[in-house]
Amino acid sequence: MSNDVSNSGSAARRLSVFKTYKLYVGGKFPRSESGRVYEVTDSKGDWLANAPLSSRKDARDAVVAARKAFSAWSGATAYNRGQILYRIAEMLEGRRGQFVREVAEAEGLSKSKAAAVVDAAVDRWVWYAGWTDKIAQVVGGGNPVAGPFFNLSSPEPTGVVAVLAPQESSFLGLVSVIAPVIATGNTAVVVASERAPLPALSLGEVLATSDLPGGVVNVLSGRTAEIAAPLASHQDVNAIDLAGADEALAKELEIAAADNLKRVLRPQAVDGAADWTAVPGIDRMTAFLETKTVWHPTGSLGASGSSY
Amino acid sequence: MTTDKTMDKRSSAFEYAPAPESRSVVDIAPSYGLFVDGEFTDAADGKVFKTVSPSTEEVLSEVAQAGAEDVDRAVRAARKAFEKWSALPGSERAKYLFRIARIVQERSRELAVLETLDNGKPIKETRDADLPLVAAHFFYYAGWADKLGHAGFGADPRPLGVAGQVIPWNFPLLMLAWKIAPALATGNTVVLKPAETTPLSALFFADICRQAGLPKGVVNILPGYGDAGAAVVAHPDVNKVAFTGSTGVGKEIARTVAGTRKKLTLELGGKGANIVFDDAPIDQAVEGIVNGIFFNQGQVCCAGSRLLVQESIQDELLDSLKRRLSTLRVGDPLDKNTDVGAINSAEQLARITALADQGEAEGAERWSPSCELPENGYWFAPTLFTGVTQAHRIARDEIFGPVLSVLTFRTPDEAVAKANNTPYGLSAGIWTEKGSRILAVANKLRAGVVWSNTFNKFDPTSPFGGYKESGFGREGGRHGLEAYLDV
């Protein structure tokens, strides 16, 4: 780590305190149940930390946590979800320095470039915070059916979404795939970038202090293919975002996902080529929304004339 | 099967004279080809199959059976046609679709009789539900063709290319309309495979395309079996796959298109819960329950096949329901008084029979009104199961027939939990006079379509489709455009 030892004045050099990076599941910070870790290095190959190497069991535990959180989170008001997403931006802003360092180390960026990435990630939370109470009006609405019915279509969250975070963009990419999933009321099991999981694991600490109910976002680190397989075939996962899967893995997971007809968001572009700085559209939200249409008879007052 | 003697008397009090709709309005040719690139042609391997009337087992016609080679030819024709069709101004595509809508209206009686003959459903339904909805669907999407930039999918949303569409036999022409109308409005071209038991209305639709002057290759119709459908789905030059049918086949299709760029929408099975609360208007609820499960002989993916009735009104409701079922007229689908027609095929009848028998074997109590079923054809009496638990197979599996499983509940929470206790999520019904309860329950149901104090209502402006294993994507309304646009 670049700042493991720092000068404090002219006297003794102070030994810094390392952080044990842990998973974020159900609002808690467990180690992998397997007890395994793997070495995470910076872009030059220098050791940064030992990250948990999540197991299939960790993945299943995370699904249980996400399912448990779904009812309350999807039932929260859109305004409340917006407030919480904005709170995440606030918390992140406060820990900006830490994330600039972690992103710089993870992605081999200069400090100023890493700062731009973190700023963009904070702004992305703000952007999605504003969407929570607007998306329903944009994609839902009344339908003028040919009969005496009030007919209304509304978007509802799909449920538990497994999210394979982008491999290259370890932080802005990560935020760009998590925020749209939870903004609309889904809960998420997120598999962090395999090579650069530390910003994702630290994001868990931000989420834990942002009034986001435990279990809404669960963050796992480890081998993407190993963790993704049980998620893709899990009968209690409703959808999967394959952003962080390569072509072969994406196909394999899409086949597994067919077993319970998960909604599948295929990788949009070759991972490294994806431009996460662009302003997102609404596609990442609508990919994990269901449209419910409710018919209500309007009845009739029996009056023949028009009398507004 | 138990019958109720008092019901016998009540139903026999009504004698109806036969009132058959004339078959003379429809002229079915002894044989039909595939419709590819604007021409009717034989299958490459010369194969044919017979389509029969399910109510009489009479052979209606002999139809060319598409194989993989024919699929390839049809996809190439559709690809060739795509360039010009997608480049047409939307306003011109709109006019073709308006023409089709009008011709469907003009020929609606002919098509209704044809559909009733080939499918077995009552003329009352084809005449008053299927055909008006077919015309309405084309009319609705016609209007979108030159307004796509206002649909919320960007200023100039592009079509996908060739759409491969595989449709079921329960609403043959209506499912064709649900597939073809939005596909053409958005500028795609189509290869459509109708079900093997109901190919005729799609072939008549090919003639409507001819009358409308639709450019050749824009719509291709390939009658055939599952192998032809699989070939359409797997064809590398198909850009979009749309399927309506069973959940099992839907999963297979999802596996086939995995790892491709093909866009997929699936409209699959269901096990809809029709929830009746103790304050519901009983007579209206009974009509809704009957419509929910006996409309189209229950061969409806969104059928209300599970009746969840609040325990306190169970006896009263079931008495009314049985009384009403005793007045249902089962028989000749062409008779204008018929309420319940024939089951679509011997295979489907066997499936319904097996599941109903299992219901009995597992201990549920079976009841049917006394009704005389015709000698020939495929028939199944309206059937009610009481004493059904959530563990019974008839409460879990889609029967796709005129079989209603009755379960009870005590509290709204229990009703919601039971309604959602299924891998499906297509439809649900709520019967109560309390408005706030309707909204609260509708909000909790994991289903794509919820009918409150009504059931089985459809409209081209109203998005239709499932949650969970009932599939994904929506058909109808603005939402229905998305499936055919590159967005």
TrEMBL record, chain A:
Membrane-crossing residue ranges in chain numbering: none
InterPro entries: Ald_DH/histidinol_DH (IPR016161), Ald_DH_N (IPR016162), Aldehyde_DH_dom (IPR015590)
A Pfam family this chain is assigned to: Aldedh
Record carries keyword Kinase: no
Keywords from the UniProt entry: Oxidoreductase
Segment forming the signal sequence: none
Gene3D superfamilies cross-referenced by the UniProt entry: Aldehyde Dehydrogenase, Chain A, domain 1
Domain Aldehyde dehydrogenase, first and last residues per copy: 33-265
Protein name from the UniProt record: Aldehyde dehydrogenase family protein
Taxonomic classification: Bacteria, Bacillati, Actinomycetota, Actinomycetes, Kitasatosporales
